[in-house]
Structures are given as structure tokens and as C-alpha cells.
Amino acid sequence: MSINGNSSYKTHSYESKREKIISEFFAFNKNIPMQSPTPWQPPTDVYETPDNIVVKMSIPGMKSEDIRVSLLEEVLTVNGFINDTSPHERICFYQVEIRHGYFERSISLPKPIDTENMQAIYKNGFLQVVLPKTKQPLTQKISVKIQFHQ
Predict the structure, then answer these.
(1) Rounded distance, CA 134 to CA 96, Å?
(2) How far is CA 65 from CA 15, 81, 92, in A?
(3) What is the pLDDT of residues 99-119, one digit of tens each?
(4) Cβ-based burial of 80 (10 A; exposed 0-12, middle 13-18, buried ≥19)
(5) What does DSSP assign to residue 10?
(6) Which of 21, 85, 118, 132 has its CA 20 to 30 A from that of 45?
């Protein structure tokens, strides 16, 4: 029973709300913003060999000036920016999986590493950072130069 005694009022009101929700859902503007206010994190593998800690990251389409690798107190940080170079205008997205914009990934290394001999190599869309193990802990921030192989 409705408050005003008219039982059809509630049903009509309910149907109107339901119709409004359905129409708004199907009229939803699918122009999704591609730039996020927080950095995204590329897929990353971290593994150990007898002599090294290896970090392998999937970041296709990069240029050397768009990527940075640094190390501070046994935390490796990789960050950069991937530009969307698509030449076409986007009207409506049906699926969005390719990431663009600012990314950052920080990885706590399980063991101290030799900062004098670490290497970063970018090839075929993958960044591989090879960090030789050592017994001495790191106490300063180190930037790593990346070798690009196209």
C-alpha cells in the first residue's frame, strides 16, 4: 500500500526509475579517458640466477628518452611515459587494453646487488635489468643507462 492510498503510484514510479536506469545505461557515453591520475604498472617478472637478480618488464613502443631506471636502497624503480601514436580519431571504445601514459613500477630486491656492473637492455618491447648479486648493501641512488636494440 502506498502512502497516498494510490497503489498504482508506486508501480508507476518504480517502472519510471527502472526505465530511466536502462535508458541511461544504453546511452552511456563510452568515451573513456585514457590518462589516469595514477601511474599504471607494466607486467613484470623478477627472478634469480646463480649470479644475478633479473627484472624483465613488458613496455612496448618505448624510446630511450621516455624511460628511466634507478636504484635506491635495494629498491629498483622503472618509470616513463608511453605516448599514444595512433593516427586515427577515436569515437567510441569497445575494448581498451593497450596502456598509454605515465607508468611506474618499484621492486624491492631480495638481495644486495653490485651497482658497478648492473645493465639495462631494451629489446623487442621488453626491458631487462640484470643486477649482479653482492654482499654489500646499497646506500646511494644510482641511475642506470639503458641500451636500446631495435
Answers:
(1) 42
(2) 57, 9, 31
(3) 888 999 999 999 999 988 999
(4) buried
(5) H
(6) 85
